[in-house]
Design brief:
With 92 residues, this protein is of the alpha+beta class. The protein has helices at residues 50-64, 74-82; strands at residues 5-7, 12-17, 20-30, 33-40, 68-71. It has a single domain, classed as Aminopeptidase, CATH 3.40.630.30. Helices cover 26% and strands 35% of the residues. It has a 5-stranded mixed sheet with strand order 1-2-3-4-5. A hairpin with a 4-residue loop joins β1 and β2. The mean pLDDT is 96.
């Protein structure tokens, strides 16, 4: 399976499969916090775990950068609830 890519100019993590892109967008709230604002998977790719893979990669990246994450995307909120190992970097 394709690997998750990080586009630092477009502020997104994404994975391309069969010519379509699943992605999660973010922006910097300030130098120490990022807002994970939107996750999207095209209908033809849904149900395959792509959103989770993209969000996990984004959360791992935030941890390595010593960033706090403010999730405004409902998918990211649910993902963190199911994966408590990321709750230490998530703030309201």
């Amino acid at each position: 399976m394709n690997e998750v890519q990080h586009d630092t100019e477009e502020h997104k993590f994404y994975i391309e499969v069969k010519g379509s892109e699943a992605h999660m967008s973010y922006y910097y709230k300030d130098p120490s916090r990022v807002v994970y604002s939107h996750t999207y998977v095209p209908p033809e790719l849904r149900g395959g775990g792509l959103a989770g893979k993209v969000v996990r990669t984004a959360l791992e990246w935030a941890r390595t950068q010593n960033l706090e994450v403010l999730p405004t995307c409902s998918y990211v909120v649910k993902f963190v609830q199911k994966h408590p190992e990321f709750q230490d970097i998530v703030v309201d």
